Amino acid sequence: MILRMLCVICKDPKLATAKDFFFSGLDIARNTSNPLGSVVTPANVAQIPGLNTLGISLARVDYAPYGGLNPPHTHPRATEILTVLEGTLYVGFVTSNPDNRLITKVLNPGDVFVFPVGLIHFQFNVGKTKAVAIAALSSQNPGVITIANAVFGSTPPIRSDVLAKAFQSSSTMKFAHFLVALVVLALASSIATAVFVNGKFCMDPKLATAKDFSFSGLNTPRYTGNKVGSNVTLLNVDQIPGLNTLGISLARIDYAPNGGLNPPHTHPRGTEILVVVEGTLYVGFVTSNPDNRFINKVLYPGDVFVFPVGLIHFQLNIAKNPAVAFAGLSSQNPGTITIANAVFGSDPPISPDVLAKAFQLDSKISSSTMKFAHFLVALVVLALASSIATAVFVNGKFCMDPKLATAKDFSFSGLNTPRYTGNKVGSNVTLLNVDQIPGLNTLGISLARIDYAPNGGLNPPHTHPRGTEILVVVEGTLYVGFVTSNPDNRFINKVLYPGDVFVFPVGLIHFQLNIAKNPAVAFAGLSSQNPGTITIANAVFGSDPPISPDVLAKAFQLDSKIVSYLQKQFGGNNNNELWTELEFPCGIVKSPKKNSFEDMTIVEYVFVNGKFCKDPNLAVANDFFFSGLNIRRNTGNQVGSNVTLLNVDQIPGLNTLGISLVRIDYAPNGGLNPPHVHPRATEILLVLEGTLSVGFVTSNPDNRLIAKVLNPGDVFVFPLGLIHFQLNVAKSNAVAVAALSSQNPGVITIANAVFGSDPPITLDVLTKAFQLGKNEVKNLQKQFGGANK
Questions:
Q1: To pair with 655 at 20 to 30 A between CA atoms, which of 215, 251, 389, 572?
Q2: Which CDD domains match (predicted)?
């Protein structure tokens, strides 16, 4: 999977400006006079450097009249949520095995549709006029991939014995028979996870329809005659059930003239990318500590701006006319949170010993700490004044009242127990996803234990359409590998030993094979609460009902007879009568040239090693590899803990893939990983040794402390953006491994960001947002070093 980055990202972060988070011109129509009749204008990390690591991007798609086509493709690293601005589009996608159902819909202006990550999808203009759509994608670099070539056409090829065992066929297989082999792949797959398009909680996934992925009416103006002068129409999993597990949502924001304000707030579970459709907006956000810099910009129609996940941000209409913007958010339930209440106002309260050690304060209140306490009172006012108070649905709305959630909803015991491997493939995957840990819902991460039998235990070639995997070997010796995306389809492989770590990028074919005489065990973190498994070839040519032959013929530049033959091979026999009612324009598809398939291959280079300037052709297995996570670390410091972080700095191949791994060592008798927040990541932690007292605090208005004592083999989840900690309550050392749903999780102190930004946020914004007088705001800013002059 080649991941693409820009050298501009290497700049000193202190030099970052509003320009790094800004893009202009998305309102300009593009030329669609090409063979496909469409043009995609991306606003991803290449255009907006500040998107790097933030897991979201935006695109404008222009379609020519009478058949402009955005051809069938898959984004291996992103879910797409599309809203039509002009014209009429016929769109669809195909679900994963074993059903391979075609979900389709005709969209009109204001309609919204979701294309789940990793699934084949397309858009087709069936109207007589041009069409325009805006798409948000849950990755800063979504990518494009053709899977069939990756399986049987890799360079060098995957070992024949691996393929033979995986597909239960002869070890000698000619490439000409790869279509038949893919049928065997579909039948032999040992992990066939259906796509839960709207979550498993409400309906049988076989009953899901296009309605579960669509929404109408986003082109209608909203009422803004309220206190703040704005109205947010959020399309999350409540409005579009199919968004569940897919990590993205969309919003329309209407602003009243002369000061309509979307007040300062933070989304603990989502980065926001905003495009202005009408009007003029003054927008800004504040960076994390220690700088707490205020990044701001005036936006006009067609301008795009990024608000990184977990950071305080706002938008203000500074013109005499109404304003309208659309925003994509990298979560299906972004949420809103006030951090100060969570730290000092939890119910029950966090232990004073924990807070005293974390903040290096005496547990008794002194005159010096009284001043510090005053700002807490002010931040309580901030919490009460907030006009948008979204509770954290820690285990999803589907099963229970979130106020009833307990530590049990975020924990699991027994992952230290060996599993049975006497099956056909010689492996056993124990997956801890949202089914086993309800609190994982919406949080974009899961964990798995994999047991391998001696002498060839195999986790067969497969792809996770919704998750990058980062694997650490605990016992044994594994031969692992994955195949990059087109056009190179390179095979990246490595032999791993205990303590070694390897990354399998989202959407790519990968496997693990035990090549030793002893059993092997590995743990894997995945960047989705429901990663899924899929066989793509069946989805393209074997969907039910089948994709239109006109769409496939034009997309792959094949004669319609060849398309029909391929559909027969994969059980997707076409009935041309199915398509007569759509009245597709005639003469769109021309007879292809001999090499036209190669001419139409979509080239998407992705720099898998994330070393920002390196030639992607030079990427090697070591770019996805780390050794030594089994070595104890020194905990003789002030807090008595040591975090060994494996992020993009240690494993370059993690860049853009939204996941990382840590080892945490705790000293006996009180070793503490102090209260903190990861603005860009959910954490799922597994205890290997010792006994830990852990906890996190929910968001406003409840600010509840969810706590648990963990023993070896126990697992606990800390939702993205929430205050959390771990404390060793035993007399011996403790060790834990944690996966985080970002390649760069980050740490932030919110109070400083609100009132201590440099330059400071304007008094007008703060006074209106927090319903405070100017003098009170000035005093708070003096306390935090961000005083207005």
A1: 251
A2: cupin_OxOx
Comparing CA positions, the residue from 339, 764, 771, 758 lying closest to residue 781 is 758
Residues 770 and 387: their CA atoms lie apart, in Å, by: 9
CB 468 within 8 A of CB 510: no
Least confident of 8-12, 129-133, 752-756: 8-12
Amino acid residing at 14: K
pLDDT of residue 529: 64
Q: Is 462 annotated as a binding residue?
A: no
Averaged pLDDT, 359-370: 44
Per the CB < 8 A criterion, the answer to whether 494 and 620 are in contact is: no
Quote the longest CA-to-CA distance of the chain: 85
Under CATH, to which class is 13-143+547-569 assigned? mainly beta
Q: What is the spatial distance between Cα 474 and Cα 496, in angstroms, rounded to a whole number?
A: 10
Determine if residue 724 is labeled as part of a ligand binding site. Answer: yes
Residue 75 marked as a ligand binder = no
Please tell me which residue, 701 or 293, carries the higher pLDDT value: 293
Superfamily of domain 411-532+608-612+621-752: Jelly Rolls (2.60.120.10)
- Measured in residues, the chain has a length of 789
Domain layout of the chain by residue ranges: 13-143+547-569, 411-532+608-612+621-752
**pLDDT over 90 percentage in the chain:** 8
The band of 506, judged by pLDDT with boundaries at 50, 70 and 90, is: low
Same fold, 13-143+547-569 and 411-532+608-612+621-752: yes
Residue pLDDT, tens place only, 459-477: 876 676 567 677 678 789 9
User: Which tokens is 189 given?
Assistant: 């797959």
Q: What pLDDT is recorded for position 419?
A: 92
DSSP for 130-191, written as a single string = -EEEEEEESSSS-----HHHHHHS-BSPPPHHHHHHHHTS-S---GGGHHHHHHHHHHH-S-
Query: How far apart (Å, rounded) are the C-alpha atoms in residues 754 and 95?
Result: 44
Q: Which pairs from 159-165 meet CB under 8 Å and 24+ separation?
A: 162/458, 162/461, 162/511, 162/513, 163/461, 165/425, 165/456, 165/458, 165/460
> How confident is the model over 65-88, as pLDDT tens digits?
988 888 767 776 666 776 777 899
The backbone torsions φ and ψ at residue 14, rounded to the nearest 5 degrees and listed phi first, read -70, -20
More confident residue, 146 or 744: 744
